[in-house]
Amino acid sequence: MTARDASTANRDVLDHLIGTGDMDIRRSAILDIAPTPLPHDFDFGRVEGMMLALAVGDSLGNAIEGILPADQRQHYGEITDYLPNPYAATRGVPTDDTQLAFWTLEQMIVDGGLVPDLVAARFCQDTIFGIGRAVREFVRNCRSGLSISPCSAPGY
Known about the structure:
The chain has helices spanning 3-20, 44-61, 69-76, 96-111, 116-123, 133-143. The radius of gyration is 19 Å and the shape is globular. The chain is mainly α.
């Protein structure tokens, strides 16, 4: 599947999810506008900076993930440094969110666009550290051969 084919399939999946009410969003015309190609002088340093900021922010928030903001402030005050993590022997460890974001970007670069099936396959290739219940189930389903595409659901 090419990135162009995947783009059309992705749009079909989105339309299906919105149409069935499985995704509760209001359709906007912006969803029908294809992004323009990147200029030849695009500064990929900005993408690197974005990914670095993602990893740093994820690492800062790792130890308090799932704790309500009011409870965070009450227990930790203003968080200005990495907190001890009960699941890691060190501070400043990013979560599976960072790992999956990097893998997604890497796969998109290889494929020349977003091809969800290939991103899913990438997620199944290596160990995901700090994996959550939903991602664990997703990977287990993919590895067992279950379809990841809502398009394969009955009635689509």
